[in-house]
Write a structure and sequence with these properties.
Helix content: 40-55%
Number of helices: 12
Distance between the termini: 34 Å
Structural class: mainly alpha
Shape: globular
Order of helices and strands: HHHHHHEEHHHHHH
Radius of gyration: 18 Å
């Protein structure tokens, strides 16, 4: 099928992503019409992937429910930001099972980058810059908990804060956390973001600033000098 025949073409997707709530409704309608399953089945699979209520009271029991709630929580009018939110948990379409037989989503961030790469290869909807932003948000949205606890590796904080795509990542992390009803901790979020800005300011004024690569493309988003540990669903705001 040619691209202009797609019900979920790039133009329609971006036109309906000027608010998170609008994008959530658009994806729901495309799902009900059968188009979403044909074009982005990775998102449809998330309707069958469970989320435990103690970690995701907003999700109505599924990863899809969490994504819809995160989109509705979004305050952004930037289509790319809202698309980052829509795809942030796409790696959960390929879960493993733990010893008790329950789905586990450990490592879904890196898996999600690979899954989205496959989506992009199939659809060719996104520019190189858009892919870079979406990849960053998929891979690092779980850093919200370590930022709020102010124990995220400092080298990673500087790399993320220096990125041109930091506003997209920050908005994605915010929506991912803010939608979680009574688990949302706005004071911890504000303190964490102040901590990020302080570390970034200290780095910027340091004598070593010029020796640290700045911005996307200067270094990979993982494999920094300080090891980045993958989060798990053991903590309420540590699971996306």
């Amino acid at each position: 099928m040619k691209r202009y025949q797609h019900a979920l073409c790039r133009e329609a997707l971006f036109a309906n992503a000027t608010s998170g709530a609008q994008l959530a409704e658009y994806l729901r309608l495309q799902h009900d019409a059968g188009w979403l399953e044909r074009l982005i089945p990775e998102l449809v699979i998330l309707k069958t992937m469970p989320h435990r209520a103690e970690f995701h009271p907003e999700a109505a029991g599924t990863v899809w429910g969490h994504i819809m709630a995160a989109l509705r929580a979004s305050e952004s009018s930037d289509p790319l930001t809202n698309l980052c939110i829509a795809f942030h948990d796409v790696g959960k379409c390929c879960p493993e099972r733990d010893a008790a037989g329950r789905f586990t989503y450990r490592g879904h961030e890196l898996l999600g980058v690979a899954v989205f790469h496959g989506i992009q290869r199939r659809l060719r909807f996104f520019t190189e810059e858009e892919v870079r932003a979406i990849h960053l948000c998929i891979e690092h949205h779980m850093q919200s908990r370590s930022i709020m606890m102010q124990d995220c590796p400092r080298a990673l904080v500087v790399r993320l804060r220096s990125s041109e795509d930091w506003p997209n990542l920050k908005a994605t992390m915010w929506a991912d956390c803010a939608c979680r009803m009574h688990l949302w901790q706005p004071s911890a979020w504000n303190d964490g973001m102040e901590w990020v800005d302080r570390l970034y300011g200290e780095w910027w004024t340091s004598q070593d600033a010029q020796r640290v690569p700045k911005g996307p493309g200067s270094a990979p988003t993982v494999g920094f000098s300080e090891k980045v540990s993958l989060s798990s669903e053991k903590e309420p705001l540590g699971s996306a």
